[in-house]
Write a structure and sequence with these properties.
The protein is an alpha/beta fold. Bound molecules: 5,10-Methenyltetrahydrofolate (GUE). Its EC number is 1.5.1.5, 3.5.4.9.
């Protein structure tokens, strides 16, 4: 059996079209949804990513401004700028691109963003809202993974989901989202003994480690859904995920590719969150 592909490019296109429609409706009410992206330093990858985010936004009718600051920007100045953006009623979403230069305390910076504008979903208040099921913003990557499961009509109730990775921005929120949909959830990590024993039981595996070949065919139950959050490069410099795609696709029922899987969905969910922030502000 060869797994069916969950096409993140195609799904993100649908989501962006929906965002564009809702954005038009807001604009007709005189409200222009707006995202402020803050980039500190000149890391080339971050420059590419933030440019993508601006283009995605503009294409869907959202307004996005990219503010670039020198790498030696003081924390005091960055926090002051965030407070200004918090207070600006024309700005609905604030995204501070990560990683930040080392002299800046990333948690302090994120906690300074007003939770109502935290479209990345990284603020502790957003994390708390996810834990308790209250309205807030969900981190874009796991949120996008949930949309991928939804797109194939997958009912998580009673299913066993295994998340590999426990980061604050992917693994932990992913587990909570799966739990909210009534899956039985296991979180595996670097301290897990016998990872394969867990993944072989799983109906759904989400690989979010940041290392190649974390999940190979022998670790997957036939027919399982495999979601690959990884973003790595192989020895030829080609973008690849955490999953041995060629092997696992022969065993799994569904699989997400890299590129063209979770990445485009992450970007789409940022647009959804920004629009949602503007809709909430509009009442
Ligand atoms: N505050 C903050 N929020 C973020 O969401 C954030 C961040 N900082 N820092 C960096 C990471 C990385 N990230 C990506 C999202 C989508 C793709 C993406 O669309 N990838 C394409 C491939 C792009 C390529 O070819 O390089 C794909 O998988 O198909 C990549 C990377 C968001 N991040």
């Amino acid at each position: 059996m060869t797994a069916q592909l969950i096409d993140g490019n195609a799904l993100s296109k649908k989501i962006r079209a929906d965002v564009a429609g809702r954005t038009q409706a807001l604009r007709a009410r005189g409200i222009q949804p707006a995202l402020a992206i803050v980039l500190v330093g000149s890391d080339p990858a971050s420059q590419v990513y933030t440019r993508h985010k601006v283009n995605d936004s503009t294409e869907t009718g959202l307004q996005a401004t990219l503010e670039t600051y020198p790498a030696d920007l003081s924390e005091e100045k960055l926090l002051a700028r965030i407070r200004e953006l918090n207070a600006d009623p024309a700005v609905h979403g604030i995204l501070v691109q990560l990683p930040l230069p080392k002299h800046l305390n990333a948690s302090k910076v994120i906690e300074t963003i007003a939770p109502a504008k935290d479209v990345d979903g990284f603020h502790v208040a957003s994390a708390g809202a996810l834990v308790t099921g209250q309205p807030g913003f969900w981190p874009c990557t796991p949120y996008g993974c949930m949309k991928m499961l939804e797109s194939i009509g997958y009912d998580l109730r009673g299913k066993h989901a295994v998340v590999i990775g426990r980061s604050n921005i992917v693994g932990k929120p992913m587990a909570l989202m799966l739990l909210q949909k009534n899956a039985t959830v296991t979180i595996c990590h670097s301290g897990t003994t016998d990872l394969k024993a867990h993944t072989r039981q799983a109906d759904v595996v989400v690989a979010a480690v940041g290392k190649r070949n974390v999940l190979t065919a022998d670790m997957v139950k036939p027919g399982a859904v495999v979601i690959d959050v990884g973003m790595n490069r192989d020895e030829a410099g080609k973008l690849c995920g955490d999953v041995d795609f060629a092997g696992v696709r022969e065993v799994a029922g569904w699989i997400t590719p890299v590129p063209g899987g979770v990445g485009p969905m992450t970007r789409a969910m940022l647009l959804v969150n920004t629009l949602e922030a503007a809709e909430r502000a509009a009442g």
